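Shape is hard to put into words, and the shape of a protein is harder than most. The fold becomes a row of whole numbers, each drawn from a learned catalogue of backbone shapes. The outcome of that step, for a single protein, is printed below.
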Amino acid sequence: MAAPEHVIEKRKSSVLFKQAELGLAARMMLGLEGRASLAISKKLLGGNWVTGNVYLTPDSLEFRPDFLDAKLHKNGEELRLTVPLEKITSMQVRQGIATQILDVTAEEVTVSFRCYRANAFVSAIETARAASQT
């Protein structure tokens, strides 16, 4: 998927989607044990992690799944999201297993981004938000 225009910063990231559903080919590749593990993980986490890129633009955070994840999910085209910077009410970084997780809250909805150098990304988002308000 093509990047948006005017990208300030880009991060390889995963986003936790409640509505992510694997397609038939992905379920067949996983086999029974893999599907069982995925179902348990989805129940515990409240969704599935979808890999792609998160882009910081002057107006928003935009997530776009990578080609493979978009094709392996039934609803691959729905696994995109845009969070306007002006709607962000809070950001919190927490430690995940291998990477940090950035929780962005906007209008009572929280989006979790799993990425490296999340604290630096928060700083870039805050700088873009400040610039957009002037």
